[in-house]
Amino acid sequence: MAQPAFHVFLSHGLESGPGSTKIQALKTVAETFSGVYAEAVDHRSTKDPAERLAQMRHAMAAVGAKPEQTILAGSSMGGWVCARTSEQTPVRGCFMLAPALALPDYPESNPVIGARHARIIHGWNDDVVPVMPVLELARKQQIEALVLPDGHRLENSVQRVAEEFRRFLFLCVENPNPS
C-alpha cells in the first residue's frame, strides 16, 4: 500500500521571508520524510494578518491538501497564521515558534488550535511576544510547549528547533492513526 502524501506548509514571520534560516531548516527536515511535500509560503507581499491567512488557505487549496494530511508550521506572525488556519480548518499538525498569540492588540489572537497534534516552542527572553500569555493559552488548550533560553527569533536554538520538528513530524506522519 502506498504511503499517503502529507503536505507541510511553512509560514514565516512579519519581517522575514520564505528563505529565512528557521523556515529553511524546517523545510529541510520535512523533505527528509518520504511522501511529504513541503512548501514555504511567501507572505512578503503583505503585512496584513487577514491577507496572510488567505494566502495560506490558497496555498493549501492550490495543491489539493487534505486537512487530515496537512501539517502547518510557522514562526511569530506565521505561527498566528498556522493557529488561525487550524482553527478554521482542523489539520493533522500545528507547530508554532514564538507564535504571535495572546497579544492584546492583535486580531483574534486567542484561537482554538484545531490540530490533532500541536506544539509551541518559545523563548524565555522573547521581547516581541511575551512568553507567559502564550503558555497560559497552551495550558488552557493542553498544547505541548517547550520554552528555551533564547529570544523571539530563536536564533540560538535553530538546531534544537529542527530536532523538535523532526520528532513532531514523525508523530504526525509516521504514526498516522494515534489514539
In short:
It comes from Marinobacter nauticus. This protein is α/β, with parallel strands linked by helices and 179 residues long.
Structural account:
- Helix content is 36%, strand content 22%.
- Strands 2-1-3-4-5-6 form a six-stranded parallel beta sheet, sandwiched between helices.
- The protein is α/β, with parallel strands linked by helices and 179 residues long.
- Helix 4 links the parallel strand 5 and strand 6.
- Helix 1 (21-30) packs parallel to helix 5 and helix 2 crosses helix 3 (77-88).
- The protein has five helices and six strands.
- It has helices spanning 21-30, 49-62, 77-88, 131-141, 158-174, and strands at 6-11, 36-41, 70-75, 91-97, 115-123, 144-148.
- It has one domain (6-174): 3-Layer(aba) Sandwich (Rossmann fold).
